[in-house]
Amino acid sequence: MRRLQRGLGKAGIVLALVLGVGAPALAGPSSVSTKTYKELTEIQEVMAAGDTRGAVTRLETLLGEVEADSLDQALTLQTLGYVEMSREDFPKAIDYLKRALGTERLPQNVVYNVGYMVAQLHAALGQFDEALSFAEDWFKQLEAPKPDQYMFMANIYAQVKRYAESAPYAEKAVAATDKPREAWYQLLTADYFELKKYPEATRTLQRMVKLWPDKGAYWEQLASVYMVQDDRNHALATLKIAFDLNVLEKESTVKSLIQLCVMRGIPEHGGRLLQAAMEQELLPRDETYMEMLAQAWVEARERERAVAAYSEIGETFNSGEAWMKVANIHVDATQWAQAEAAVAKALRAQLDDDDKGKAYLLLGIAKVEQGEFKSGKDALRKARTFKKTERSAGNWMNYADEMKRQSDWLAANR
User: Fold this and answer.
1) Is 1.10.10.10 the CATH number for 1-143?
2) CATH class given for the domain over 322-414
3) Phi and psi of 9, rounded to 5°?
4) Residue 195, Cβ neighbours under 10 Å: how many?
5) Percent over 90 (pLDDT), the chain
6) pTM (2 decimals)?
7) Residues forming beta bridges with residue 319, ordered by sequence position
8) Nearest-angstrom CA–CA distance, 5 and 93
9) CB–CB of 187/170 below 8 Å?
10) Domain chopping of the chain, boundaries
11) Is 322-414 in the same CATH topology as 1-143?
């Protein structure tokens, strides 16, 4: 509303608009009387001095004196409307301007301009349906609409959720201006999203990230519209560029970038990006993101990095589960001593009963594989006390007995 007031608050401009309909002539139904012209001129001086209250008082007096349904009355009402506009009393301004139009005495070009003003005032008050009824008539009489005028119509239609009608106006406004306006592109993009015109939204957002590359939100929206079209490669490339430009604003967007990397079969790239994001403090180095980092290294078969990430989780957050994952990585690599050490740390950390059973089972396996049959079976006996590991522990105990017999036979026959 302040923008509207700034454009209309000067008393001199207001009266010039009112009196610009023609030179004073003899009183009559289609001309302004000398008396009214003189009074309006004096009121202009009052307004120029900043006394809008005094101007309103004199205009109200004049309104009671002029002939009904005359040009004098129309001009007085119009002037009252503009004065109330300058005072930011928009409801009163609307009432006066509508009454001026209702006299049907204003010249046609003035009718259109006053109608436009009423439309703007309704829009400023959030009364968009009322604004549209005046704006449509006003726009029809424009021979060569300007970009701002196209955009005014686009805004009004968008506000009443008539996006299919808003978009063409916004397109013409954007195409007709030499200097790109960010808010116009935003409205056009919003129209396309509402209409599910994703290719058009893509092209507009591609233009926006070139014009305003430091606005992370536009990169995120572009990636989003690629995802809607199931174009994950372009979505990933878009987010990667934004990440490299250091303009991503949302933690969730950076997270999505990492997940996309893993989904697209480049987990190593995702791991490196996640590591960089934490180093740049775009993401916290908390348990959730450290787990994501470790999993990315696992997917990338970067065993040492995965071990380092899970070990950091275990040490920092006293996570027995993380140490168990370290142990499993070592088991897969048949690194039994390292697996045993990791399980020992897991048992000293926080583990629920199910995980404790798995830990004792894994500890027993690691010891048996290293030829430590007695301590291995001790661990396996503990694993048998947990329901979920009872059977596996029993099988491994039988295996341990067989391995012990073979070991003893070999020792005896050397």
Assistant:
1) no
2) mainly alpha
3) -85, -10
4) 14
5) 46
6) 0.65
7) 350
8) 12
9) yes
10) 1-143, 267-317, 322-414
11) yes
